[in-house]
Records
---
Amino acid sequence: MTYYMIWFAAIVAGGFFVALVSRMTPMRRLNPFHELLPNPLGFVLVAAAFGVFSGLRINIGDTTSYVLSYRMIDINEIEPIPFMIRGNSMYPWLSYICHLRSEEPYMLIMITALIAVVPTVYIVYKYSAMYDVGIALFVLTGYYTFSMNGIRQYAAAGILILGTKYLFSDKKTDFFKFLIFVFFAWLFHSSALIMIVIYFAARRRAWTPLTVLLLVGTVFVTVIFNTILPTFLNILEDTDYSMYADNGWFTSGTQEGSNFIRVVVLIIPLVMAFMERRYMSAVYGKKWDILVNLSLINLSFYILSLYNWLFARLAIYTSVYVIVMMTYVITRGENRERKQWLYPVSIIMYIVYFVMIKYSIVGYESELF
């Protein structure tokens, strides 16, 4: 193991231990699924450790490109950048503000890392059945390590996640409160607007014929994607992904789809959720339906990503809800005998899966420690 991987392993092990202890010393308050909230100190310590480690990186994924473009900014040769109300305007404005303080990109990477990581850990803390299981899955499913690639979109996801309360709310007027979070996320990445559609799609009863239609339709679109590709490329021209339409990303044949194993990893917990559907719906009500629907939508994005991995970027907005759902499927099912072995077996399986995707973190470097 490299020096940085020793640090990463220590943070993961320490984060899991802190989460476990905080769950065993809970508050008297209940979370939205009527589970005891863990000790809040466990959230603070875990979020700080994961957030800072991510923020101290100088590479991984597209971080290198953002670092290079930041260092090429010459404050003396450009006019002050005003804050503008339009999609994607937040990142260049934030880059400019940070550059007024320092020519090195550390502040910008740290701010975006904290925006991406801290809200996610908070939702895992507040909504999971078992906080320690949630933190383990936060790492082992790859959410944490992949959040170091795709700076703007994970920052947008972090902002959207803060609106989870209104996504699960029974009040119809809370939709407009959720829109506030969509608006601020849109400032980072215009693709965040897709959560408006997802909001209405998710707030339906789970496991209806529409569920089957969604999955079958997604598979069908993936199979015939080459036929509808010209129309799709025309749609991309007005989005954040226009560069992929212009540079032959979909037509050159050089970009492959996601690994099929990722889809299998997502299908398994949904199969277990289907088996427990009556019990879970009876215990957790409409919130459980929303959680399942968000996980099904996440799966649909990954099925589409079998054609081209770019579609997996859209799954960023719903991935944290898959983690939360899995904590309940693993630890709160009706069958007690199944629960006794499902927890350890699931963790072992996700450790194996994480070893397969270790490329997402193994090259981590920092210039600050």
---
Amino acid sequence: MSVLPSQKLTIGELFVSMAVGLILYLLPNDIRNQTTEVWLSESMVFLAAFIITGVFLFIIKRYEAVGAALLTNALITAGSFGFGIINGILTKGEGFWPSFSEYQLISMLILWVVPFLFVVLLRLTAKDQKDTNDTRRSFCRFLSLSLRAMMILYIMVVVFVQILPHMPSTSVQRSIYYVPFTRIQECLDNAAEWGTLYLCWNGLLLMPLSFSLLILNPKIRWWQILFISFAAGLALEIFQFSFSTGTVYVDDILLYLAGGMIGVFIKRLIDYIRSFITVGQDRTMLSLDFTPVGGLDENDENDDDEEEMEQEENLSSDLRESLPLGSEADDALDDTIDNPVTLPTHTDTLSS
């Protein structure tokens, strides 16, 4: 069974996607200038991102358009941040070392998570006419573009928040805490002040990494994700120890491992829900490996057959109109249509 090719974004749709990405980039600063309450600004960013994504999808009706907007937002954010670093190095003024404020971090998270979850929820509940091979291809392209956007933002946050939160210094005394659960217990005792934020930050830091790895390779095992999380967490602590940008805790590695397993759980949960909705027909929705499913595009093929029949009928009617009137001409035309003349080939001429 043939599968219709998915139509890619046109130039106009691509420019609209880029414009939406620019709007998402400007949104947090514009909202922050309108109110002094941080929580209210974050709530308005969330609501605005939700509305913009919904209206954008309703107009374009392509999953990959949202992915292109997310990638545009990530590239502009990285470009502006890099320009700020270069400007700070050249001028050596205030803000020489790059940093993220809490509002910037939360806004970046909202502007990626809200459109991503919006599209995933739509795809999660797609059935019957809304679940075609064309929409599945479109969703795969969306995953590819949105994961690239997430990796750009993720690397920026990990480098300038976790590894290098301030300028490296070799004069600061290094310290390592080997006793497990010491830092975790300290965070639980001070949960009302900073403990909860610390646990959530370190516990979710490697969740995007494991989530992305499972999308890129759905066949990867959970113990492999656990090993990768351990290696990545160990590398982060080594960088912090080398640059003296933070105290090294064994508990941080345990929290990194927990974050990696949370990413595995979320990905498996989404796939399980999709498999339950489709009665086992679509078990790996979050995957870049597109496999055409037979029977989804039968309506499209029937439409193509009807169009071919209409074209043949129109051709026959045009031939009838071009010939002179008369029963003999009509009979000759019918014989020509029913019994087309076969011209002799070069081989036939040689044999004769």
---
Amino acid sequence: MYQKSKILFLMIFGFINASLSAQNIPIEFLNMNIDKNQSKYSKPVLENEIAGVSTKHEILTNSLKERVTVDNSYKTIYLFIKGNGDLSTKDKTYDIVPETIFLPNNVKDLYFKPQINDTLHYIKITVLQTEIDKTDIKTFPEDNINNIYFKKFTDCESYTEPIKSPQTTSRTILPNKFIPRIAMGTVETVGPDKVGAHEHPMLEQLFLGLTDNQTMVYADSAQIYFPEYTILHIPLGSSHSVSVKENNKMYYVWMDFFRDKKGEEWLKTHKKQK
């Protein structure tokens, strides 16, 4: 009787411990379905996780227009993840398709909308600009700050990295000379595969699970299932990795928010694909 009770206790303790470990990797599931009568939806995601960074999941339906505002105190990034739409300027229209990144930069009088009978899902990331950021951005190429940045993920430059296998496709979707202290990219592969364990205490990092992503994320002793249309926060300074089982897909966006300019040296580990 004692032995059975001991085994039961260990099982319960192990379950509780695993649950507590999973909670060390903050994660939030995006609501991909809204009421048919609802034309707009906006919800903060992982609120107050990273100082100065605000992340929202927003949805537009019924061809509702969304006007883009520009405020020099902030920089805003749009990641269109599902649905089709149109982005319009005074003299040009861009086709929004799933997995496209958009920065308005200093361009004004912009708006976007979903196509007729479609629903547009996007992640809106707003980053507070410090006085140092406002000084640094003056050294960036003029095209990077004065023109729209609009690219499909698959059109972005590929890179390799020692922690990834040769079968992994990695792309830089936002180089670090558009917004101070920020870079973004994608990781895509089919299992069995993994991103090896690594640490980067010089930056905060979010992951966004894209279509069909089915992976496991590990950070120190914690682990958590990371499916499509979720956002998680890698604990600062943790030794973290990602794995995917056979025939499953790994496909996510990494978002790096560097604590200072010096930390961007980390990006030198990314080598352009030959």
---
Amino acid sequence: MDKSFYSDSQTGHLSEWGAAIAQICEEKGIDQEVIIEVIESALSAAYKKETGRKGRIVRADFNDQSGAGSFFEIYQVVDKKDREFAEKEENFELPAPDKKRKIKIWKEENLEDREDANTPEDEEKKLFFRPEREILIEEAKKLLPKIKKGQYLAIPVSAPKDFGRIAAQTAKQVILQKIKETEKNIIYNEYAERVGEVLPGTVQRVEGFQAHIDLGKTIALLPRKEQVVGERYEQGQRLKVYILRVDSESRNTMVIVSRTHPALVEGLLKLEVPEIFAGVVKIHKVVREPGQRAKVAVWSEDPSIDSVGSCIGQRGTRVQAVTDELRGERIDLINYSEDSMIFLERALSPAKVRKIMVTDEENRRVRVFVDKDQQSIAIGRSGQNVRLASRITGWEIDIEVWNGEETEEKKPLVAEEKTEPTTEKQEEVLTEMPQEEIVEGEKEEEKAEEKK
């Protein structure tokens, strides 16, 4: 195979190095510039390992077409009067410049952070001169007359003809580590912004009580406590999950997903109902007992829009799609109302409510009266319906059977000055008569007494 054909960029074909880099970029979702920076960092580490020039600042330029690397040793230009010098200086020699290339000023900033050992406690004291990383301005001008104090002098050096086994292993480890760190940061940045969304995934594998979900760019974890009781997951199964959080503290960035979170129902409705996605119909609150039943309160600012009907869809297709995704979980759609009593009545559907009485407004507790045949419906299986209604409204609910009689204490409508007791029949009449008729009756009684 003619390698020159692949290394010639004018042909429009990638070199072998370029093809390998392109493949890594596609598989890992990493930009080509980042991969080249990783390779350059690995080459710098291998150079220092091979030549034994530890402590130096080494930078490599990598050509992705030819696969060749060129190296520079970099020194910061300092003034003699700004540095302290050790009594016995170690013998550090500048490298022999590669005559094929020119000495230049390195424009990269923050090439190194000074070690704490070289930082004086007193700001007025001088830093120690480090010949392995610094060069005096007098010597630097001999190599490059236009160099200035504070700039970095880049001396081109010859690359080793062949890296040894240890240097090559060092380069390999650096490349793998850097790619892993870059991939970890990319995954974190992408999925940290998507926390709270519902995404499709495929079950990759199941290990014990944990399922691993393939989201495309990463494998998410579905822990046992976020799984619906009774749901089984098989390899290759497609399902939708709620992005709960992104854990970056572990060795690898791990995306944690859930199938039990109430927001999963909200996200599924948003995918199935265009009115919710557009914001015309809004979801007030979602409560659920995963795998069994959920209640969703919806409303719309536009009175002409039926918010519940929009969510149900033609012949129930929209809500049925959500139910199917949740493996048969029942969805109760409720019209939200700012009136607490009306909202309570709707929340207890499909039971029909006779009357609601507030028993403790401070602690938000009510008594709800229903017909005897509606009592089991209002309570639901194992108290499920009343439990969900209580959670979605924020009221503690006591279900009682309606016996057809008034249960509230009746207050007399006569004036407080009148102390004569009234009979039961008179009390019934007074409560039924309007206030104006009661007052006129009292005046007629007073006139009759005056005539007597």
